Amino acid sequence: xxxxxxxxxxxxxxxxxxxxxxxxxxxxxxxxxxxxxxxxxxxxxxxxxxxxxxxxxxxxxxxxxxxxxxxxxxxxxxxxxxxxxxxxxxxxxxxxxxxxxxxxxxxxxxxxxxxxxxxxxxxxxxxxxxxxxxxxxxxxxxxxxxxxxxxxxxxxxxxxxxxxxxxxxxxxxxxxxxxxxxxxxxxxxxxxxxxxxxxxxxxxxxxxxxxxxxxxxxxxxxxxxxxxxxxxxxxxxxxxxxxxxxxxxxxxxxxxxxxxxxxxxxxxxxxxxxxxxxxxxxxxxxxxxxxxxxxxxxxxxxxxxxxxxxxxxxxxxxxxxxxxxxxxxxxxxxxxxxxxxxxxxxxxxxxxxxxxxxxxxxxxxxxxxxxxxxxxxxxxxxxxxxxxxxxxxxxxxxxxxxxxxxxxxxxxxxxxxxxxxxxxxxxxxxxxxxxxxxxxxxxxxxxxxxxxxxxxxxx
Length: 459
Prior knowledge:
Layout: E1 2-4, E2 7-9, H1 11-34, H2 38-41, H3 46-66, H4 72-75, H5 78-102, H6 110-135, E3 140-145, H7 149-159, E4 166-172, E5 185-187, H8 192-199, E6 203-206, H9 217-225, E7 229-232, H10 233-241, H11 251-256, H12 264-284, H13 286-299, E8 305-311, E9 317-323, H14 331-334, H15 348-356, H16 363-368, E10 373-375, H17 382-391, E11 404-406, H18 408-412, H19 419-434, H20 438-454
Parallel strand pairs: 3-4, 3-6, 4-5, 6-7, 10-11
Antiparallel strand pairs: 1-2, 8-9
């Protein structure tokens, strides 16, 4: 795993992206060489040529990412992969054509481009087929020491992501765990040395929830000194899925671990860029806001805007503003409930607003008022906060920072309609608070663009 923008990414995926960037650039160089003429020769020379190649390559990579082409499950499916690559070329061509209209100097001349996309398609297909074969050879053979419900969940996550390069061989446990584990039990913890020798593993993950008196400490120390890589389940969880398991979290981990540094300068910078972007966005979106208001009034009776009390920084209440997406006064009948997929309380216009996330636009006013940032944990209703604080002693830590319009949890998780799903949201929010930085904010905003385009994400 490689840490980039304060988030861990599979090293194999990053290498694939870098390799494909090289292939795309070489495709255009090859096309220029085949169509050798004075006009296309400029694509190979000087700053202008480098800029053209960089813009074109960057557009390709963005389209590959936004069309989920770096998902390991898609890479291993040749039919789906081929279909996605054709979509990528189509979308990239549309984007580049639009850019050519406004910035003709940034785009490689058209006769070169048409030949280059044909070459790049062949090279990308070849690269992806080769990469799929590489994924079948995992870099790490892993055994879990102990087992827990969360260990099972993480094991299933690893099994669905071949790009991680991790092969889970099984687990050792003293028989205290008997649920439907997705791995084979290889023996008890006292057999750890024999199991390691027989299985030829190079990594151990301590997954037991109750560790005092349940771990072969001396054996683990000898294996660690002998070169074995040993990870805590919580550390692996942070790296693979970007969340902190609150089940195994001790207060000492918050005190002594790296991160959880809410530096005043960082908080000030977050406020500054949030306010500037919010102000600009409100000005640009004024015509859209007017059209949305008309559509809401024509679609159902009731006000255009909807405000609701939420809990913000330091646990203080504030009123969050949104475009009304539900029937007027519907909660008088249903009472306060969490949003769900295909919510029957939502109007036709509201369904579109939720899917496109345009219902969130009025929250830019909350950002300008200093009640929210662009990026942060989603603010929750006071009644629900009381329930969730009773369910987890760490829930109140979400209020150490300003809530956000978008956040790490929103780009990683769907709707939260139960207490357990809300606690899952807490795991993502704690990861964000621990790793808070401008780089992570940028990555969240980048992923938010993908969610907005395809109508994904959570309320």
